[in-house]
Amino acid sequence: MGLLTYITKKLLIGIPVIFGVTIILFYIMYILPGDPIQLLLSGERVTPERVEELRRAWGLDQPVYVQYFYWLSRIIRGDLGISIVTKQPVSLLILQRLPYTLALMLTSILLSYVIGVLTGIITALKRGSLLDSILSTSSIICYSIPGFWFGLILMLIFAYYLRLFPVSGYEGWHSLILPALSLALPSSAYVMRLTRAEMIEVLGEDYIRTAWAKGLSKRRVLLVHALRNAIIPVVTMFFLDLPWLMGGAVVIETLFALPGMGRLLYVSILKQDYPVVQGIVLIITILTVVCNTLGDVVIAILDPRIRFERGRSV
Amino acid sequence: MPRTLLSIKDLRVYYETIRGYVKAVDSVDLEIYEGESFCLIGETGCGKSTLALAIPRLLPPNARILSGSIMFKNIDLLKLSDSELEEIRGRDIAVVFQNPMSSLNPVLRIGLQVGEPLVAHFKTPWREALISAIKQLSRVGIPDPHLRSKDYPHAFSGGMKQRSMIAMMTSCKPSLLIADEPTTALDVTIQAQVLRLIRELKEEYGLTLLLITHNFGIVAEMCDRVGVMYAGKLVEVGNVIDIFESPLHPYTKGLIECVIARRKSKSRLSQIPGAPPSLINPPGGCRFHPRCLYATSRCTSEEPGLIEVSRKHIVACHNYVR
């Protein structure tokens, strides 16, 4: 039916997008100041003939597009180059760090959406009550507090005074709780406000009145008829948020000294370790494209109007 | 003597707004008999929809029911708890709304929405409810009901959506069907079809119909009795023939003039002078007096009660003395 065609189309569109991204990424690296050979030699004195030889050996004498295809074919084979600083393969560096970052991102996004959606529904239903005022006000506060400051406070209270969690470094899954919380809280405040607004809007729709008129139970009206509609923009937000969390992870991982990809990115930028930066940026962009595509697909499943483009009509 | 199905006494429904209370329905008394078609007619904003939606208590959150009782089969609907109301809504009292485009849930399949009341009220298993939904859709004239019951509302035309609404609301064979301007949002040819469908189903299921409209053509075609509303008040109630042939209230006369005048090709379209009053501060005495050609000093100060002028023909006007 329409849904499968729609999903295939969305997946196929994702491919050229990723291609485009690699072209831009490669070109940025290409025009960056600094000669890779000089960087590689890192100040060693060698003859110009030796430099030429190296340039040929690395394919740097070829035109840009040829270099791009060399680079692309290496990327596809999983070879992201070698770190200038540690001389280790970039892919290995990233693979070592990726699990921590993924664990941190997933925990925090699940935390923020579970908290945000639940409080959003509650405040929408209890609109105007004391609970609503308290939660809405604290959500503004949570949303305004920067994650790193929040992280410091959490660290101070739960790690330093109460000694419930380690202050920094990775000592097992419980090391992830404070960082995940400091990433999740500001975002959960936003999710709550979105859910609340959507829910209030949907509850005023004609089809909700129809649902009441049919004599459905309160639970069915709210969960099946209202939430099913109100959740659609929240789910869209979820998939758009996922890659954005990476930015937060850079700060939070640095703060909590977690050995994740965010901290690797931070350190590599400071040390001008271009291959590593390039590798991580590539991973983030692919993640973004994948998340967006996934989001499109999930939304199409949730909202039948979206996949109705040129399908059957009356 | 027909049995009374619904009896509304001294009903007052006000809307709370920033500028004050809007007195949408003010002390209305109304009786609807079993098996009849009753029509409420009046201009936009006269409170007819508010009156109708107050019966199953489907009013918006800023509406306040200040007084009155709505007796339905000897139960006062205004005294019921939410869960008791749930049992009556959709099963004994069903509503077809004005705008079919926005009254169906956009993310649920038509068949599910049509079958849902059966599951809610009779604990019918979903499989059977969906089969009944298909039968019901075919009854209201949806082609290929098997296939179309799997569609979502956006794939339906306005007329089909309203037919599906009717299928959904009659699936439990309610005793009272409230149709709140069911054809206002549809084009003229579809209007006639939908009205015919409502009339057929009324006969088939033995429903009592409460139809809200501002169209005298629909009144003539559909109804046994008519109630005329003006500025939150019921001003005249009578048989459809009496209302058309010997209207009593000056407002009803004016309304009918507007329609009849159209048929005399050369004469200018007649109209009622002035505009309907604000319902926040309605005029004292008879609410129609500023626009009334027959107004006396009594009309400006004293509110007229309902008087039965002839058999079953009731009017609220000082010009008639019992």
Structure description:
The complex is a heterodimer of chains A (314) and B (322). By secondary structure, chain A is an all-alpha fold. Chain A contains twelve helices and no strands. Chain A has a domain at 97-272: MetI-like (MetI-like fold). The longest helix of chain A is centred in the C-terminal third of the chain and has 39 residues, at 218-256. Chain B has a single domain, classed as Rossmann fold, CATH 3.40.50. Chain B has twelve helices and twelve strands. In chain B, a hairpin with a 2-residue loop joins strand 1 (4-17) and strand 2. The chains are: A mainly alpha (314), B alpha/beta (322). Chains A and B meet through helix 9 and helix 10 of A and helix 2, helix 4 and helix 7 of B.
CATH domain topology of chain B: Rossmann fold
Side by side, the strands of the main sheet of chain B go 6-7-8-3-9-10-12-11
In CATH, the homologous superfamily of chain B goes by the name P-loop containing nucleotide triphosphate hydrolases
Radius of gyration based on Cα positions of chain A? 25 Å
| N to C succession of SSEs of chain B | EEEHEEHEHHHHHEHEHEEHHHEE
What do we call the CATH homologous superfamily of the domain at 97-272 in chain A?
MetI-like
Helix content of chain B: 25-40%
Low-confidence stretches of chain A: 310-314
Which structural category do the helix and sheet elements of chain A fall into? mainly alpha
Oligomeric status of the shown chains? heterodimer
Write down the overall mean pLDDT of chain A.
Answer: 87
Shape of chain A: flat
The CATH architecture category of chain B equals: 3-Layer(aba) Sandwich
Biggest pleated sheet of chain A:
none
